């Protein structure tokens, strides 16, 4: 319920799981849920481990929807947390669809590049049009 959401600035594991399931099934509905300012505040306060947990349940496109909603709060550290949790095929999709949304990418893209295989590095640079 919205009232319980408004009492805390951070999402519980159960709430995060529910949000991730929604994003996995229908990523385009995530912005509708996050019209609730209490939900949006919680999403913008997600830690990298929480974003990774969300990503494992929601997949790359659900993660993309989350990153868009997080706005400037979504950073390279969140991308890295997701990369470490994903399989190789999902890592490539994450690099193309999600990594370019990190707000601090211009300053910190090197921290992502350091974790990539040569194929992943090529896909990442292509996504960034470097």
Question: Can you offer a commentary on this structure?
Answer:
- The structure is a single chain.
- With 130 residues, the chain is mainly alpha-helical.
- The chain is built from nine helices and no strands.
- It has helices at residues 2-5, 13-25, 30-33, 37-44, 48-70, 76-85, 88-97, 105-113, 118-128.
- The longest helix has 23 residues, at 48-70.
- The radius of gyration is 14 Å and the shape is globular.
- The termini are far apart.
Unreliable stretches: 1-7
Strand content: under 5%
Q: Main sheet, how many strands, which sense, barrel?
A: none
Total strands:
0
Distance between the termini: 44 Å
Query: Quick check: average pLDDT?
Result: 88
Q: Roughly what percent helix? A: over 70%
Write the layout of secondary structure elements.
Layout: H1 2-5, H2 13-25, H3 30-33, H4 37-44, H5 48-70, H6 76-85, H7 88-97, H8 105-113, H9 118-128
Concise description?
With 130 residues, the chain is mainly α.
Quickly list its features.
disordered N terminus; mainly alpha; single chain; 130 residues
């Amino acid at each position: 319920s919205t009232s319980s959401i408004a009492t805390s600035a951070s999402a519980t594991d159960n709430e995060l799981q529910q949000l991730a399931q929604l994003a996995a099934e229908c990523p385009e509905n995530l912005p509708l849920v996050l019209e609730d300012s209490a939900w949006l505040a919680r999403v913008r306060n997600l830690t990298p481990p929480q974003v990774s947990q969300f990503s494992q349940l929601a997949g790359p496109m659900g993660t993309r929807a989350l990153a868009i909603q997080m706005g400037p709060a979504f950073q390279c550290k969140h991308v890295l947390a997701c990369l470490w949790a994903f399989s190789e095929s999902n890592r490539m999709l994450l690099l193309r669809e999600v990594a370019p949304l990190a707000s601090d990418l211009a300053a910190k893209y090197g921290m992502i590049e350091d974790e990539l295989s040569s194929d992943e590095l090529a896909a990442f640079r292509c996504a960034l049009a470097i």
